[in-house]
């Protein structure tokens, strides 16, 4: 089963921790590498697809938290740069949604990995660091999902997610502000509510400025951890896809302009 719209991928995406042992085929790997090349050129990041490497997730597989992880994205970028961490979330999630469109599964991973093994198998240039990784591959029992309708898969996946409420995602707005906000803002927030985040903290929240028609994304500093900027980037991408069109400026408080 494949999905033509990125919003479809958002709606059916969930964190996949158990994988089919079948390797990613060469054509699929070539498509992902092409997408990575484009993203790296655009963002200045150094995201890489590592295939057929089981040692990085060895401890997580041994503990039962994951199964059959043999492929992952290594998320590499400039050392100590929060803007690049945000871009890593934004563009890394773009790659993951592309993979989901092609019936692959993925899971962002901040811990549960052997970082030394990842660093041994990926390329890290001078001035760069490994931010985190994302497991990727064919989900366990993926053939069963291929027989299901889109609506059925959405329903199943929705039971696997927990999320803060819409009100929590728009914490600075009152009920009247929310009622008067345009439909694209509501759709953007609803898509961001489905975004993955480290330890499911969901530190990003959004506001709408009726005077100039812009939205803003913020970090909840009570819920943040070391991956807050990565989570902010992921949430911004989901919002942008849900809103339909437009672009963000980077950073905490970055503005979204509808196009």
Question: Which features would summarize this protein structure in a list?
Answer:
alpha+beta; Nitroreductase; 16% strand; NADH Oxidase; 4-stranded antiparallel sheet; 259 residues; oxidoreductase activity; 41% helix; 2 domains; globular
CATH class of the largest domain: Alpha Beta
Structural class: alpha+beta
CATH fold naming of the largest domain: NADH Oxidase
Average pLDDT across residues? 92
Number of helices: 11
CATH architecture assignment name of the largest domain: 3-Layer(aba) Sandwich
Shape: globular
Q: Could you state the order of secondary-structure elements as H and E?
A: HHEHEHEHEHHHHHEEHEE
The percent of residues in helical segments reads 40-55%
> Spans with pLDDT under 50 lasting ≥5 residues?
none
**Largest beta sheet: strand ordering:** 1-2-4-3
GO molecular function, one term: oxidoreductase activity
InterPro entries: Nitroreductase-like (IPR000415), TM1586_NiRdase (IPR029478)
Protein name: Nitroreductase
Organism: Bifidobacterium tibiigranuli
Detailed description of the structure:
This protein has 259 residues and is α+β, with helices and mostly antiparallel strands. 41% of the residues lie in helices and 16% in strands. A hairpin with a 6-residue loop joins strand 7 and strand 8.
Short description:
It contains eleven helices and eight strands. It is α+β, with helices and mostly antiparallel strands and 259 residues long.
